[in-house]
Automatic annotation (TrEMBL):
Residues 6-36 form the Cobaltochelatase subunit CobS N-terminal domain. The keyword Chloroplast does not apply. One of its GO terms (biological process) is ribosomal large subunit assembly. GO terms for molecular function: ATP binding; ATP hydrolysis activity; cobaltochelatase activity. Belongs to the CbbQ/NirQ/NorQ/GpvN family. Keywords: ATP-binding, Ligase, Nucleotide-binding. The keyword Repeat does not apply. Its EC number is 6.6.1.2. It is an enzyme of class 6 (ligase). Residues 221-288 form the CbbQ/NirQ/NorQ C-terminal domain. GO terms for cellular component: preribosome, large subunit precursor. The gene is cobS_1. This is Aerobic cobaltochelatase subunit CobS. Residues 63-186 form the ATPase dynein-related AAA domain. It comes from Halomonas chromatireducens.
C-alpha cells in the first residue's frame, strides 16, 4: 500500500451505486489497489444489510452479520468494499487460526546474509496499521484465545497491546472490522452448523451493529441467475427458484434437514451448463447430500416445479467416457 491511498480521498454516491440515498456521506478511495476485491456485476445488494455495512465503513462501526450458509454474507461486505475501492481481507476463524497468526511471533529471518531472530507481525497487526477492512468469517467457530484477542479491538478506540514488544498499536483511521457467522451468537439449535458455539455475551455486547441476512427474495435470485448463467432460459430459472423456495419452506416446517442456498442454486445452474441435464445437475449439486429418507420429498417438490420425475440412481452423462 502506498501513501497515495493511506486515507479515503473521495465520497461514494450511494444513491447511484447502491440505490440507497443515505443522510450521511460515505468515504471511498478514488483508485483500487491489490487488496480491493474484484467487483461482481451480477451481485444484488439487500438494502437493509447494505446500509448496515455502509455504517461500518462510514462511521467505523463494528458490524456483525449473521445468517444461513450461502446467503451472501461475506460477499455483501466484499462487494461494498469493491464499490468503495476499500482494501478488504477475509480471515476464516477455523480451528487452525491461532493467537500467534493474528498477533505475530518471533521468527528467524535473514538480514544482511545472517540469521537473526525478530518479531514478525501477524495479519491482524499488519492490517491494524493500514486502511484495511478485516472480515472475520465463521466468527462463531473461533477458538477462545483468538476471540479474546479480537475483543479488545471492539472497543471504541480499539488499541492493541503487544506485550512482547512493549508496544501499543493505535488502529489506522481507515481500519474497519466486520464479522460473519451462521448464528447470532447464541449457539446452533438446528444441528446444521457443527463446530459453532455460543459466544461470550460480553463480547457480543461490543458489536455496534448486528444484522441478519436471509436468502434473497425470488426476484433477486432470478436476476442473479440470469446475470451469471445467461445460457439458461428464463423458464428454467423460474422453476429452479420456485423449487429452492419450496425446499426452504420444507426446511422451516421440519420436513427437510438440508437447505438449498443461493450458492447451491448457482452451482446447479453451472452443472446444467456442463452436463445439459437438469435432473443430474440437481442431483450433483443438492440431492446427493440430502438424507435418504428425505429424497422422496425432494423428488415430489421437483415434480411439482418441473412436471417431471426426479429419477433415482447415479447421474449419467452422455458422451463422456
Amino acid at each position: 500500500m502506498t501513501d497515495a491511498i493511506s486515507s479515503p480521498d473521495t465520497f461514494c454516491d450511494t444513491a447511484h451505486t447502491f440505490k440507497l440515498p443515505l443522510p450521511w456521506p460515505v468515504p471511498a478511495f478514488s483508485e483500487p489497489e491489490e487488496h480491493v476485491p474484484d467487483p461482481d456485476p451480477a451481485f444484488r445488494f439487500m438494502p437493509d444489510v447494505t446500509t448496515a455495512i455502509l455504517m461500518g465503513f462510514a462511521h467505523n462501526r463494528r458490524v456483525y452479520l449473521h445468517g444461513p450458509h450461502g446467503s451472501g454474507k461475506s460477499s455483501h461486505i466484499e462487494q461494498v468494499a469493491a464499490r468503495l475501492n476499500w482494501p478488504c481481507i477475509r480471515i476464516n476463524l477455523d480451528g487452525h487460526i491461532t493467537r500467534a497468526d493474528l498477533i505475530g511471533r518471533d521468527m528467524v529471518v535473514i538480514r544482511d546474509g545472517k540469521q537473526v531472530t525478530e518479531f514478525v507481525p501477524g495479519i491482524l497487526v499488519w492490517a491494524l496499521e493500514r486502511p484495511v477492512a478485516i472480515v472475520f468469517d465463521e466468527y462463531d467457530a473461533g477458538r477462545p484465545d483468538v476471540m479474546f484477542v479480537i475483543q479488545r479491538l471492539l472497543e471504541s478506540q480499539g488499541r492493541l497491546t503487544l506485550l512482547d514488544q512493549n508496544r501499543v498499536i493505535t488502529p489506522h483511521p481507515a481500519f474497519r472490522l466486520f464479522a460473519t457467522a451462521n448464528t447470532a451468537g447464541q449457539g446452533d439449535a438446528t444441528g446444521l452448523y457443527a463446530g459453532t458455539q455460543a459466544l461470550n455475551q460480553a463480547q457480543m455486547d461490543r458489536w455496534h451493529v448486528v444484522t441478519e441476512l436471509g436468502y434473497m427474495p425470488a426476484d433477486r435470485e432470478r436476476e442473479i441467475l440470469q446475470s451469471r448463467l445467461p445460457s439458461l432460459d428464463a423458464e428454467t430459472i423460474e422453476r429452479m427458484v420456485t423449487f429452492a423456495g419450496l425446499t426452504r419452506q420444507a426446511f422451516t416446517q421440519g420436513d427437510l434437514s438440508s437447505l438449498l442456498s443461493l450458492r447451491t442454486l448457482v452451482s446447479w445452474g453451472e452443472n446444467i451448463g456442463l452436463i445439459k441435464d437438469t435432473q443430474d445437475a440437481l442431483r450433483l449439486a443438492f440431492v446427493n447430500r440430502c438424507d435418504e429418507t428425505e429424497r422422496p420429498l425432494v423428488a415430489e417438490l421437483y415434480q411439482r416445479c418441473f412436471d417431471a420425475e426426479l429419477l433415482r440412481g447415479a447421474p449419467h452423462v452422455t458422451g463422456i467416457y
